[in-house]
Design a protein that fits this description.
Elements lengths: L11 E4 L4 H7 L5 H4 L3 H4 L6 E6 L2 H7 L5 H11 L5 E5 L12 H13 L4 E4 L7 H12 L3 E7 L8 H14 L3 E5 L7 H14 L4 E4 L7 H10 L4 E4 L13 H10 L8 H21 L12 H5 L3 H13 L6 H14 L9 H14 L9 H8 L11 H8 L17 H7 L7 H9 L1 H27 L1
Parallel strand pairs: 1-2, 1-8, 2-3, 3-4, 4-5, 5-6, 6-7, 7-8
Helix pairs in contact: 6-7, 8-9, 9-10, 14-16, 15-16, 20-21
Bound molecules: cobalt (II) ion (CO).
Length: 468
Amino acid sequence: MTKTKADPKKVLFTETVLRDANQSLIATRLKYSEFKDILPTMDKAGYYSVECWGGAVFDVCLRYLDEDPWQRLRDLRKNLPHTKLQMLLRGQNLLGYKHYPDEIVKMFVQKSVENGIDIIRIFDALNDLRNIEVATTAAIKAGATVSGTLSYTQSPVHTLEKFAKQAKEMEDMGVATICVKDMAGVMTPLEAYDLIGAIKTEVKIPVVLHTHCTTGMAYLTYMKAIEAGVDIIDTATSCFSGGTSQPATETLNYALKQYGYETGLDDATLKQVNDFFKPIRDRYVKDGLLNPKMMATDTDALNYKVPGGMLSNLVSQLKAQNAMDRFEEVLVETPKVRKDLGYPPLVTPMSQMVGVQATSNVLAGERYKNISKEVKAYCRGEYGTAPAPIDPEVLKKALGDEKPIEGRYADTLEPVFDKTKAELAGTAKSDEDVLSYILFPQVTEKYFAARKAKEEKIVKYTITPVEE
Ligand code: CO
């Protein structure tokens, strides 16, 4: 195997406590005020980067935390002046759940960089690289470091050759690193060794591995990936590690240093960071938001070949319909639906679509009797090209005589920015506000109303003493 690792004795760390660990364990509920005091310390830890924005952070800030996500980003920038700030971006979906016109993708990326982002990890749920191209080009143009990302999944069409070829295509697109993203934590040590090796043989740029502890394999997987030459790994400070989150930063740092790897991390600072987050973790356990089960190992995802998060969704769907006795049947049906749909990786929004369709196929007593509008849109090609051809009979049932679209769905979308900005005159205070609204209209409208109410209160408060 050819190893092209730039420095064979170096492994760098991305700390995920502010984004993925926060999202995986406590539904992204960390408020900025809760962690702001530790930022100057984190700034000295020696991380390759801190993942702190994107994913669900944006939506949750507006929806539940009464925070402006852009303000959070600017505050992070100010308090982590020496650290690379990293975000996760769903390609043409940005941080929302549908495809946006290119104009919006470009602007959103530009504004993310302007407000403080250094590294953008860009992925597409189907690994349709046309869906990451516009965001990638815009991010490079804005001066960001782009991590071109492959959504990892296992299927007969997701071969080492295919993944390695796509990594090369992304390198040619101009990305600075390749990230392999195992969002379900199902990658085995052997698979990691082979896949990282295959990608390393194909590309010259550094390779990142992202996984979750869900099935208990992540530490082994990282060690084998490092043997195969992986350059950067994602970890979380130990009290926010394990289970559905990432492996622990301190643990891997300790083990790797003993092997003689340079990690760049400062042990004493890592301890301070962990000591800071411990009481926060304990409070979330006490509140009930952090279920200790989330921090334990669950091997069901291996038995059923269904990611952990999707399993719990299936259970709640069936419970709601009083049909838990059909659970085993739905689990058998799920991989069949995935195959029919051309083996999409089971990541948002595909995991939801496949799960709902499998449940409906079982409960209706007839396969594809009901097809959701999302699955129809998927069959039409609105999410991109499926990894393998969709089953012709399913396609026929979903679309009738209608033909799937040719080319890229985003090419059919009209620009919306100027129109939306005009509509929001008087409410939106910045182009960032307009972008928030375009991504999450109802949620942002509510946020705007709350902001206005708060401002009026402040004005009243500051005026009162003058009147007296
Ligand atoms: Co993840």
